[in-house]
Each structure stands twice: as structure tokens, then as C-alpha cells.
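Open question from group meeting: does this chain pack into something compact, or does most of it stay loose? Before anyone orders reagents, we agreed to write out a predicted structure and look at it together. Recording both the input and the output here so the notebook holds the full record.
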Amino acid sequence: MNPSQVFGRLNELGTLREGAEADIAVFSLEDGQFRLVDALGATRTAHRMLQPVATIKSGQLYGSASIPTERL
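C-alpha cells returned:
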């Protein structure tokens, strides 16, 4: 069972089809050297990081005015 079934909205939520309600977060996967620090001060180096690009909420675009359509 998924959340849309729990709320009785199986045909309205949980899909990215045209006409369905959707709040979407768009990310870009960046390669590089990224220093990560946890709450205790321990550090690690990551070689990839998800960077937020934009959010779409109720059909309204927030964040970046241009969303990358292809990886360079």
C-alpha cells in the first residue's frame, strides 16, 4: 500500500501524469570533492553531491529559471 491509497486518492496522487497534482524537487548530480561534516565534527569526502535546482509546487516553478535538460 502506498500513501495515495491510504488517503483514498490513488488516481490523483503519487503519479507524474498530466493533470495530476504533484510537488516535485529537481536536483542536479554534481561530481567533485565535497567535504561533509556530521553533528559530532567527523568529516568525510564525497565525490558526488545532489544540488537543488528547482521546486515545482502546485504547478508553480520556484528556484532556478532554467532547468538543465541534458548533462554536459
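Observations to bring back to the group:
The CA atoms of residues 8 and 50 lie 33 Å apart.
The radius of gyration is 17 Å.
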